[in-house]
């Protein structure tokens, strides 16, 4: 009876029996140390130099062909996989018996000699086999036939709940998270080279702010006070600008107690950076160059996203917020008040909710009518003041417009940026306006932060600021369509 034919309980019991046999033979199935000298990929790539050499490898057994006196098996390490050959006459009866007690999923150490088989496969001939970890629970069954992979572990939800198994059996998943690390490293390097200083700000905050979002709440027992998990890093980073740190950035976890979909997870990674004596034009140029530089490091010029070809190498398009909405609705809405906007929506069969505020309706038109059409990289600029409480009023003199942009690619938002508001009186008015919205039932409105107002009253230089969702950027550059595919352990409901 093969493992495939046994029940899960039978497999576990059978493996426990093998574990006991190993112990009875004097083998420690969980030793403390083994030092590999090479990775599997090194051996394969440098075969000519290593042919005939002795080396140490370690990895997880992922396939086996057990035979009478000689066997082949493949081990997988962090760099890839390689074939191992073991022969009874060369390792001895006792060690070959130990090998016979091995299963797929076990982790072993190999001291062996590099060679190439008759069919040309780079392999390692075992001189000594060390048991490093006996696995009790079997791995999902993965078979390959005619270059097609048949994976019994293909259900997405099951894979998210068992990421350790997903990483073992799906090499493309491992590659995604390797690229994620490369992307973050590239961004850090890009900002460091421009003189930005990486900093850390509080996750637990007495007042949440920096975005319109529902926070997670908790209670600090020692202080006997309600605290919030941060929804953004903005207000603390601005305090640093006020304090004389001219260029700062943070790559950190933020938390928003809101809905979940393919683009949203309640815990996510955000990049925020702020620099004195810069504006949203500078921000646009920097963001465009940073994304293009990062894509270039990954060897990406264009990519497939939602069945669309996206070219990251060209200059990003720019369009104003009201022009984008007006083009979508087929009528100029830039000078319309709330009632006028509702009339246009009704005329265009765009339903609005009776409890919606003006800002909420604008935001929903944008998200439902405009965003899905923004496929190629596009900066939407010059947002209405009412939905941008932290941005500076436009230098063109229009009090209803602020210097803000959002970057859209493939119909999704990737960045949000302002010429930052540094007028303390204007800032107070906008906070108070947001408070009125909160009092009227808007649970995403920005609360008044007196401590921040006091800080900005000390004087903040002209400043540009940007927030970029790292998870979404990784989705784009790895061509994944769900945020859960780029977060190692996404939020999941208990089974």
* Strand adjacency order, main sheet: 8-12-13-20-19-18-17-16
How large a portion of the residues is in β-strands, by DSSP E? 25-35%
Quaternary organisation: single chain
Per CATH, the architecture of the largest domain is 2-Layer Sandwich
User: In angstroms, what separates the terminal alpha carbons?
Assistant: 32 Å
Tell me the radius of gyration.
29 Å
Verbal overview:
The protein is of the alpha+beta class and 495 residues long. Helices cover 34% and strands 26% of the residues. The strands form five sheets. It has an eight-stranded mixed beta sheet with strand order 8-12-13-20-19-18-17-16, with helices on both faces. Strands 1-2-3-5-4 form a five-stranded mixed barrel. Strands 9-11-10 form a three-stranded antiparallel beta sheet, with no helix packed on it. It is elongated, with a radius of gyration of 29 Å. The model has no long low-confidence stretch (mean pLDDT 91).
Keywords:
alpha+beta, eight-stranded mixed β-sheet, elongated, OB fold (Dihydrolipoamide Acetyltransferase, E2P), single chain, BirA Bifunctional Protein, domain 2, five-stranded mixed barrel, 2 domains, 495 residues, 16 helices
SSE layout:
Blueprint: H1 8-24, H2 40-45, H3 47-50, E1 54-65, E2 70-77, E3 80-87, H4 88-91, H5 93-100, E4 107-116, E5 122-133, E6 142-145, E7 148-151, H6 156-161, H7 163-169, H8 171-193, E8 197-198, E9 204-205, E10 217-220, E11 225-229, H9 234-242, E12 247-255, E13 267-276, H10 280-297, E14 302-305, E15 308-311, E16 317-320, H11 321-329, H12 338-347, H13 358-370, E17 378-381, E18 404-409, E19 412-419, H14 424-439, H15 450-457, E20 463-469, H16 470-478
Parallel strand pairs: 3-5, 8-12, 16-17
Antiparallel strand pairs: 1-2, 1-4, 2-3, 4-5, 6-7, 9-11, 10-11, 12-13, 13-20, 14-15, 17-18, 18-19, 19-20
């Amino acid at each position: 009876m093969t493992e495939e034919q046994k029940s899960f309980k039978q497999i576990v019991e059978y493996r426990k029996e093998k574990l006991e046999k190993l112990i009875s033979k004097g083998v420690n199935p969980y030793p403390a140390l083994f030092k590999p000298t090479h990775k599997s990929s090194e051996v394969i790539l440098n075969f000519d130099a290593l042919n005939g050499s002795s080396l140490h490898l370690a990895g997880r057994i992922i396939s086996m062909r057990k035979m009478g006196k000689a066997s082949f098996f493949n081990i997988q390490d962090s760099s890839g996989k390689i074939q191992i050959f073991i022969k009874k006459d060369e390792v001895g009866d006792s060690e070959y018996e130990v090998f016979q007690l091995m299963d797929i999923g076990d982790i072993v150490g190999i001291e062996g000699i590099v060679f190439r088989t008759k069919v040309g496969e780079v392999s390692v001939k075992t001189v000594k086999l060390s048991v490093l970890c006996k696995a009790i629970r079997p791995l999902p069954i993965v078979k390959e036939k005619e270059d097609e992979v048949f994976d019994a572990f293909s259900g997405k939800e099951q894979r998210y709940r068992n990421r350790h198994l997903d990483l073992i059996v799906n090499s493309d998943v491992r590659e995604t998270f390797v690229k994620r690390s490369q992307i973050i490293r590239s961004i850090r390097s890009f900002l460091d080279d421009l003189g930005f200083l990486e900093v850390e700000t509080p996750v637990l905050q007495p007042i949440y702010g920096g975005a319109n979002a529902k926070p997670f709440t908790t209670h600090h027992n020692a202080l006997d006070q309600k605290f919030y998990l941060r929804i953004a890093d903005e207000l603390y980073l601005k305090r640093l600008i006020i304090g004389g740190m001219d260029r700062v950035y943070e790559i950190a976890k933020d938390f928003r107690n809101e809905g979940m979909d393919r683009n949203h997870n309640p815990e996510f990674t955000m990049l925020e950076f702020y620099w004195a004596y810069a504006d949203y034009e500078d921000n646009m140029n920097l963001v465009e160059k940073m994304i293009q530089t990062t894509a270039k490091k990954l060897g990406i010029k264009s990519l497939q996203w939602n069945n669309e070809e996206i070219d990251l190498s060209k200059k990003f398009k720019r369009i104003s917020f009201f022009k984008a909405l007006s083009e979508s609705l087929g009528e100029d809405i830039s000078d319309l008040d709330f009632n006028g906007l509702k009339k246009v929506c009704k005329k265009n069969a765009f339903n609005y909710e009776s409890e919606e505020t003006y800002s909420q309706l604008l935001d929903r038109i944008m998200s439902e009518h405009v965003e899905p059409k923004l496929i190629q990289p596009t900066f939407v600029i010059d947002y209405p003041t009412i939905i941008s409480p932290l941005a500076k009023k436009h230098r063109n003199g229009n009090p209803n417009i602020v210097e803000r942009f959002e970057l859209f690619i493939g119909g999704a938002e990737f960045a949000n940026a302002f010429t930052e508001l540094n007028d303390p009186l204007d800032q107070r008015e906008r906070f108070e306006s947001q408070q009125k919205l909160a009092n009227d039932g808007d649970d995403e409105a920005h609360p008044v932060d007196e401590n921040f107002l006091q800080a900005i009253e000390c004087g903040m230089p002209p400043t540009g600021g940007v927030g970029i969702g790292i998870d979404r950027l990784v989705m784009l550059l790895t061509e994944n369509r769900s945020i859960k595919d780029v977060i190692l352990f996404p939020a999941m409901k208990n089974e």
